[in-house]
Amino acid sequence: MTTPLTTDTAVEHLRDRGVLGADVAASATVLDGGVSSATFLVETEGERYVVKQPLPYLSVADVWPARLERAGVEANVLGLFGALTPDHVPRLVDYDPKRFVVTMAAAPPSWVEWRAALLRGAVDPAVGETLGRVLGSWHAATRDDPEVLERFGDLGMFVELRGDPYHRTVAARCPELAGPVLACLDELLAERRCLVHGDFSPKNVLVGADSRVWVLDHEVAHAGNPVFDVAFLLHHLVMKAVHLGARDGAAPPRVHACARAFVDAYAAAGGLATDARSAARHTGALLLARVHGKSRATYLTPDEVSRVSLIGAQGVRGELAGVDDLFGAAVRSDPVD
């Protein structure tokens, strides 16, 4: 068992690793908001670093164990994606394989988490377009690359962090939907076409001026089916449309436009997961996971949970043909049983 870092030991860790000199003044603060890692911001007079150490159990209501070795995956992926799109991921500074600690450059203080911006109703389709272009370029660049498929071929952590707590938990709790939900998981485990991020979510996107973005949290990355990344972002945007639409009827069309910009830019960049109906099915499975699985979307009200559950069921059963149908279902006003 590794010793957990604290605000005091995070600074000492960077000194021990040679990132900070012995005479460099530094302070550390806890970065809140994540459930999978202890994360700290370490600041000196001229530098800012994020120091991240994974938790052996995720901080959720259900018991959710995960291997600490996922930190090594994140470090490796930061190096690879950093070479492909250096402007869209933080720079890897150091990785300590004994303590499973990743150190990376921190974003400028003015940058904001995209999830927080979306929940405030600040929806910028240019961010969706940039994310589609970045994701499409990652998938295209790693397509059928034998070295990548070998290096990231272990699906164990994907199953621990996604397959079990999402699909298999939904199948157990919603047996009437177990068939199509588990069929989605089978597709994800069977097809290995490129390097998949695995957590392509608004909470893992930082946005700066002129819609500049960084994509964070690469620890679930694996050689797999690219539809997972496309569906993962789409399901978050569908939930935001449902949530915002309860207060502002003009918000869902903005989120829809953002999603459309994302999928169009993804396809234009050479993205591999361009089958709209397949993306809708996988989006449906993930929507169900966020209201019935181990990783609940806590900002949804009970009525919104019911709406998301209905959209998820329609999607995973193949009743929705693509992005337009998903967002059409998100704004429907018919009662949910």
TrEMBL record:
It comes from the Bacteria. Residues 28-262 form the Aminoglycoside phosphotransferase domain. Keywords: ATP-binding, Kinase, Nucleotide-binding, Transferase. One of its GO terms (molecular function) is ATP binding. Transmembrane segments: none annotated. InterPro entries: Aminoglycoside_PTrfase (IPR002575), Kinase-like_dom_sf (IPR011009). Gene3D superfamilies: 3.90.1200.10, Phosphorylase Kinase, domain 1. The keyword Nucleotide-binding applies. The keyword Transcription regulation does not apply. Belongs to the methylthioribose kinase family. PANTHER family: METHYLTHIORIBOSE KINASE. This is 5-methylthioribose kinase. It comes from Thermasporomyces composti.
